[in-house]
Write a structure and sequence with these properties.
This protein is α+β, with helices and mostly antiparallel strands and 175 residues long. The chain has five helices and five strands; from the N terminus they run E-E-H-H-E-E-H-E-H-H. Helix content is 35%, strand content 18%. The strands form two sheets. Strands 3-4-5 form a three-stranded mixed sheet. The protein has a two-stranded antiparallel sheet with strand order 1-2. Helix 2 crosses helix 3.
């Protein structure tokens, strides 16, 4: 079994690859040991369809989260995320916001990332729009379920009850 000799002065330094370091043996000689210096998160392959899950993985909140949720990932060119943004959201494109967005996305993706924003042409399918459609569908389903409920139908028939518009709320599906 061949052992690689450690590089002089390398003990205690980190790099992208694992490097041998000296580990003392009981007999006083040194044997190489492998130190894992891999990043905390394995690099993630990114596709436009993964945009919403990357936002969640990055735990984006507040204005930075709103910026991300109102953008659509058009393409991934190496480490550059091409993001389309509707003109009404361009007012939040402050350099500090973009830097914070890039830093959080890079940490979640396990690799450096840069964001390039471009003005949207046509309609976008952003995570914010997907969420709005989902909420609307859940609301509509809740209202239909209420109208079909036998107890509600009996109350309407026997007591003249009515469902107050916009009073029905969908149940919480997160618990």
């Amino acid at each position: 079994m061949a052992a690689a000799a450690p590089a002089a002065g390398m003990a205690g330094t980190a790099s992208a690859a694992a490097r041998p370091t000296e580990t003392p043996r009981d007999n006083g000689t040194a044997a190489p040991a492998i130190v894992d210096t891999a990043p905390a998160h394995s690099p993630v392959a990114l596709q436009p369809r993964d945009w919403a899950s990357l936002i969640e993985r990055a735990d984006l909140r507040g204005p930075v989260g709103q910026l991300a949720r109102n953008a659509a990932l058009v393409a991934v060119d190496g480490d550059v995320l091409r993001l389309a943004l509707a003109s009404e959201h361009y007012n939040v494109l402050a350099p500090a916001m973009v830097t914070q967005l890039q830093d959080k996305l890079a940490a979640a993706a396990g690799r450096p990332l840069r964001c390039h924003f471009e003005q949207a042409r046509g309609s976008l399918d952003t995570p914010a729009e997907q969420l709005a459609r989902s909420r609307s569908a859940r609301q509509q389903q809740a209202e239909e379920d209420m109208e079909r409920d036998p107890f509600v139908q009996a109350a309407m028939r026997e007591f003249g009850a009515r469902i107050v518009p916009n009073s029905v709320r969908p149940g919480d599906t997160t618990h």
